[in-house]
Amino acid sequence: KKERKKERKKMNESFSNEASSPVTMEEEGHYVVTAHKSGGVLLSTKCNFLGGDDTMEIIIAKSNRLEIRQYTTSTSPPSSPHLFPLLHTIPLNGRITSLTPLSYPSSNTSYLFCTTERFQYCVLSYNPSITPYPIQTHASGSLRNYGCAVMGGSGSATQSHASEGGPLVSLEPNYKCLALHLYHGFLTILPLNKAYDATKYKLKRQVGVHGGPLQDPFHVRLEERTILSMTFVECDCKKMPQLVLLHQDCRGFQHVSGHVVDIKGKKLLSSSSSSPQSSQSLDRKEGGESVPPSSDIFKKSKVDGGSSLLLSIPPLDKSSGGGGGVLIAGQTQLTYYHAAYGITKVYPMPPTLLLSFSFLTPTQSDVEEGSLRLLLGDEVGNLHLLLLSHQKNKVSSLHIQTLGNTVTSSTIQYLERGMLYVGSMFGNAQLLQILENPEHNSYLAQMEDYVNLGPIVDFDLVPTAHSGTGGRSQSQIITASGTSKDGTLRFVRNGIGMNPYASVEIYGIKGMWSLKKGGDDLKGNDVFLVQSFVGQTRILGVVEEEEEEEEEEEMEDVSQEQEDMSEDESEDESEGGGGGTLEEVTIPGFDSTTSTLYAGNVSVGHAYLQITKREIRLVHSGGVDDEEEALLDTWSPTPQEHMDSMESMITVASANLSGQIVIALRGGTLLHFVVVMEDGIPKLKLVGQKVMEREISCIDLHPFSSGLGLDNNVMEDDSMNFRRSAVVAVGLWDDFTVRLLSLSSSLNEVLRINLGTSSSTTDVEEMEEVKTEDEDTAEGGGHHMMARSLCLVTLDSTSASSSSTKNGGGGGTKVDMLLVGLGDGKLVSFAVVYTSGIWMVHSRKEVSLGTQGIHLIPFQNDASSSSDGEKTTIASSGTCVLATGDRPTVVYLTGGGSNNNTVTKDDGTIQYANPKLCYSNVSLAADAEESGGTGAAAAKASQQNVAVNVATPFCSSLFSLDSSSSSNAAATSSASGTNKKSYSLCIADETTLRLGVIDDIQKLHVSTFALKMTPRRIAHHSAGRVFCVGCIADRAGGEESGSSSGVNHLGSEANMGNCVRFFDDSTFEEVDRIDLEPYEMILSMQSTRLCITDSDTTTTATTATSGKSENEDGSTTDKCFKPYLLIGTAYAYPDENEPTRGRILVIQCNNAESTGGGGAKSDGVHENNEGEQGGKSSGGSSSLFRTARIITEMQTAGAVYSICPFYNGTILVTVNSKTHLCQFTDGSSGSVGGEVPELKFVGAGHHGHILSLFVKSLASPNETGNNANATSLSSSQMQQQQPQLAIVGDIMRSVSVVEYHPHHQTLEEVARDYNANWTTAIEMLSTDLYLGGENWNNLFVLRRNSSATSEEIRCRLDTVGEFHLGEMPNKFMSGSLIMPSSSSSVGAGGGGGGSASNSSGSSFPLSPSGKNSMGPSSGPRNSSTSKKTSIMIGSETLYATVDGSIGSVLGLDRASLAFFSTLERSMTRIIRPVGDLSHAEYRAFEAERRLHPSRGFVDGDLVESFLKKVARVGYE
After folding, report:
1. What is the mean predicted confidence (pLDDT) over 956-960?
2. Range with top average pLDDT, 535-549, 564-578, 1273-1287
3. What's the pLDDT at 153?
4. What's the per-residue H, E or C state across 938-970?
5. So what's the pLDDT on residue 1380?
6. What is the tally of helices (H) and strands (E) in the chain?
7. How far apart are CA 589 and CA 595, in angstroms?
8. Alpha-helix residue ranges (DSSP H) falling in 697-821
């Protein structure tokens, strides 16, 4: 026994050492994956794409994907649960630049013509029989080769010769051709083949093939070079089409000119060549087209300056043959122009810039009155209705009316009956209803909105309450998004959303249980909700709507007081109209005069079970109204068994469906009952009893669904698959173990588990030794290790709603687990195994889920569809566990290991695999909706989850999920009225009972806080507990400058002022505000700790070892590290091309607990700025103590573009083209009134850049000088081992590396990248590896050869990775949104506390070292002998883009890079992409005249589509 004990301790120590030992990995490549896809709407179009009779589809282009939303025209929109559901999401290998619907006579559905930024195009249609995406490609091609031939040079030369106005596409109204303007001075014409039939030519997709949808394109030159807009005007189909251009000359004047397109002659005809004589040469009998006379050619000079749109206005009566006109949208007027009629109508309007438009469907009254209506959206979000009145088929007048204010639109699509869709690049897209009568001075009512984080200007990471190894914590992102009135703060977190569709105020719920209807179907719907209070029990029952109506008719004579109470509860509970209500009922036989400890169904006799503090009650499940007849059997403690008072004898109870019951009495007595049938009546039978040495705190009798520990005969006898439990888990007060007692052997103890050390034993003598260890743990402060809640459960990987963990519907991984909830909010988990008659646990994990005690409730998660709009079929729903508390969390299993959690090695031995547990916070989606979705309450919901005291599963098909689905949820095939079971949860806090459904697991959830002004920079200042936001405000209009007045003040930039706003990071009250000086702009912001040194002593910025710095004379100086907020600004004077002035502001933010502090005296400089706007805070005490003060400032000779923390409490700043080191001193001792802190440059900075936009280092902003890595090294030794490096990003000259030499106080450039990259973001991955993003939407990785012997090689940065992201990155930041590894990981395979996941649900479980590992792992021991692949993750970097995407860049080792690259190549080889657009060409690095294939990167979005799509359709 002693040898076995020593061996077990040695094994645990080995696992612990392996779990905590650092793993060094050389990054050879990087894995790029999108966590939150872009929400910015580039384009949209309306067509009948899916072929429905009473539906229409809106095709929406977002970056590199198409979203298909459907609007049903047969039902009333306001009453539909899904007004505008998302049906499909289609990825394209290219950034979409145009969408044009096409119509062919042979098809009853519309085709879609798309172009990309790489000058590719394709023709698509819907075909549900095609997998993995239901899209058929009819034609595809590229115009890049033509551009190269015309412009000369390589393929990348086409980028520099692209048209200034972007790719322009126009469709001829009679579907004769498409006009494309892609290059300066050239026009491409694509003739359409109207005779195309997809059923005959479905295999011929190449352009130019006879019978294809498109004929061979031809290219013509244009005299006009700067084309702003173009459109075909409607004309007689027998005439040649006319293309009208809006262009700008070299002097800035704008003109309109028309060209006739001769498709047969492959040329353009100008007004001089389009004479009546030329048309006579065409033979009409041979199908020729006549040339319009020169009087019909559009030509107008010097239209309104600032014109941006050219719209084709169709004729009211097309039979007249007069053709249509054009509408020129200028900044100060709208101009209607018709060349044939010689009509010019001008409507003056306030200065504005029109961005989008949509024609309204003509009504019968419009046709009778001769009017045409269209919607116009401007730059400030005003939506205007333009009415064109006709007389005798000619436009006679223009009238415009402002409907209201909405998001700044990039596209508008009118649907039907006053419904319209507004897409935006600057805020959330919206579904609006046009009202007949105005409300709040607006004719617009928002029906739904769709999340768009873009443009993300800046973001920061905020740690959550979950803690992990080494203090690492899960983070959420706070972004500064939007512009002007659409400016917002967005809180993005990885977690689980709960959509509550019923709620009612009920106070003091202490416990809840759900009951099913009595009978044979115990797997059906829940019909009763039992609630326990202090001294009473209440029951809510499900009542269908029809039954409720009949009851209301019968209850007309009931008193008004009772009727009001019933209506109040039923109306609140049925919020959303799901088909059923919850009303208070009674169950005969239930004791409602005391608190309930447990309630549930029993399969034996189909009875109800109620356990109170006084007795156990078996109750008839239905059909009996008499109390005595309904009560089948009871049991209560006798005075001989317990001599105390009869009150509260039973303290804890647990039971299961099979009829097993375990209760605990005062004094530690444990009793085991079973329900048996006697003469056809279920009765209680006592089968076991055991006296524990302490009072019992918690019991769990939940059976393992795998039947762990049961004999085969017993498992076969279990009717209806209701498993019996082989063991009961017991926790004791003042004890630090969990006991497993056998239910088949008189409650004998089979396993004792030490919660503090993970030691477990089955031997009686060793249990006494474990008891001694428990006492030692208590003396060492381990009193928090006492169990408060237990849960025996079989988790399976199908609980994650993503199909990424499935293999063709194989059922997923199942692991038997023991979860232990502690009193301080910690959760300890063990994997349980039973082999050869011995119970064992392994893979201990510990994680903090909050600060309050938690209770564990297993439940089923119904994952019917994924979050991206693609229907997902899942074989079975999965089992999760809800941990209640101040931060409710769902615990679930993802990947890793095989069933029963074992792995068989090559030598035949069995090794226990490590289960990969994930923990996701639960947030209520309704909080944001109740507050409008943009207020402080919505943001607070993201920060402070609603505390959950008690919870229980509640499954009923009467409560429809349709009413609670979010606007971004996918449309599912289950319509209302189906019998699909709704896996809901009932949760309760101190005041409210909520009924809702858990949203997709592994999904990013977004909350919004409206700023009403443009955000520039954001930082979370943890010391002051505030969010600091730099904003641009209109001094004239204030915060509400984006009002719906319809007036836009163009040229009011002089009135724009910058300010810094401070918000409490919990309540989101505005604590303070600091307004900057006129013309001063915020460019950078950083929260960091500064080292305050003595100004009389010059110190060197060496790495500190013990809070002291080394002086030049060898002496040391005490240092003080204190947190501050640093803001870099510039004065943007109108007469300066480059700023010559700037400031660095040092701001101290006091929290509520402190009134001074920060190391600076309260009578410092700039005290007059203190709290100018602080009175806006509504919290009484916070307005007095929560202030932000400018401690000091430093004037600079230029713009302070970037600030980053550096070593030893210093900072690096970039001022114009220079990089400086700054140090914080306590000021001069000779100043009046005390010392004034001072920020000053140290030594000589670095010069030699064009414009230094970014600077980054590996120093932590929370560095305090006590570096753990330097505890045994002197400053000089540390300097030699770890040089103080930083990287600088230049606007044109890419990235350079600078090193600070403390003894010389100089910054020296040691290496640079000699490529001309226009950097937009940079990040240091390691001392020798750097990540960059540039303005051609590319990523690149640079490596420094610090160990090379040649100086020439050491000073050059080699490009080791190139990748086309498709969106412009604005910022990189080291961090992760996922749960870090567990704080304790002991035993066989002690890792795996979380997952690096994106919104699609793919997970990378964490390895024992704290790094991430993608894929299943067999544990840390002898991993080389396992056939499973463990993929280690190096650096983790988050990025945000202009389009609103959030993603992650993960470092890979050589083997992982080779594996993923091979998978990527295989997928592109086997899977035909949508539109036949090459994946390799899309991801190729292209910048100006450089075109290189992608290397050193893996497209994570493509790789993860293998699990989402490809694996389901069975590709090899």
Report:
1. 63
2. 535-549
3. 53
4. HHHHHHCCCCECEEEEEECCCCCCHHHCCCCCE
5. 52
6. 19, 94
7. 15
8. 712-717, 764-779
Whole-number pLDDT of residue 917: 82
Distance of CA 113 to CAs 104, 171, 261, 609, 1401, Å? 12, 10, 20, 64, 32
Residues 513-529: pLDDT tens digits?
A: 999 887 656 667 888 99
Count CB atoms within 10 A of the CB of residue 845.
28
Give the Å distances, CA to CA, from 70 to 51, 281, 313. 11, 49, 27
Instruction: Choose among 1108, 1111, 1086, 1107: nearest CA to 1098.
Output: 1111
Contact yes or no for 747/741 (Cβ under 8 A): yes
Q: Greatest CA separation found in the chain? A: 121
Residue 573's nearest CA partner among 537, 608, 548, 610 is 548
Q: How confident is the model at residue 1393, as a pLDDT?
A: 34
Read off the pLDDT of residues 1321-1339 as tens digits, 9 standing for 90 and up.
999 999 999 999 999 999 9
Q: Is 472 helix (H, G, I), strand (E, B) or coil?
A: coil
Q: Which residue has the tokens 């919020």?
A: 575
Contact criterion met (CB below 8 Å) for 1395 and 860: no
Q: Tens digit of pLDDT for each residue in 902-912?
A: 544 445 555 56
Give which of 60, 66, 208 is closest to 135, Cα–Cα: 66
Token pair 């909706």 in the structure block, residue: 929
Spatial distance between the Cα atoms of 1072 and 1169, rounded to a whole number of angstroms: 10
Question: At which residue do the structure tokens 């899209």 appear?
Answer: 135
Please state, for a pLDDT cut of 70, what percent of the chain lies above it.
Answer: 69
Two tokens at 1253? 């936009």
DSSP string, 860-877: EE---B-TTS-B---SS-
Examine the pLDDT at 1146 and tell me if it is beyond 90.
yes
Answer whether 1293's CB lies under 8 Å from 1316's CB. Answer: yes
Who contacts 13 (Cβ-Cβ below 8 Å, separation ≥6)? none
**SS3 of 1458, please?**
helix
Closest CA to 1184 of 1156, 1147, 1165: 1156
Query: Which range among 567-576, 954-963, 1027-1036 shows the weakest confidence by mean pLDDT?
Result: 567-576
What residues contact residue 571 under an 8 Å CB cut-off, 6+ apart? 581
> Stretch 638-663: mean pLDDT, rounded?
75
Q: Which two tokens stand for residue 355?
A: 């961005």
Give the position of tokens 């600057």.
Answer: 426
**H/E stretch holding 148:** helix 144-151
Neighbours of 401 (CB within 10 A): 11
In whole angstroms, what is the distance from residue 918 CA to residue 555 CA? 50
Helix (H) / strand (E) containing 503: strand 488-505
CA angle 116, 120, 123 (to 5 degrees): 90
Three-state secondary structure call for residue 774: helix
Distances 1082 to 22, 1030, 1129 between C-alpha atoms, Å? 41, 6, 5
Q: Which positions ≥6 away from 1358 have C-beta within 8 Å?
A: 1342, 1343, 1345
Flag the least confident range among 291-300, 1355-1364, 1477-1486: 291-300
Residue 23 has pLDDT above 70, yes or no: no
Q: Which two tokens stand for residue 855?
A: 């209770």
Sheet containing strand 669-678, strands side by side: 650-655, 660-665, 669-678, 681-691
Provide the pLDDT confidence category of residue 284 given band limits of 50, 70 and 90: very low
Mean pLDDT over each residue of the chain, to the nearest integer: 77
pLDDT in the model for residue 337: 92
393-441 pLDDT, tens digit each: 788 889 999 999 999 999 999 998 889 999 999 999 999 999 999 998 9
Q: What angle do CA 1042, 1046, 1047 make, to 5 degrees?
A: 80
Containing 1503, the helix (H) or strand (E) segment is helix 1500-1505
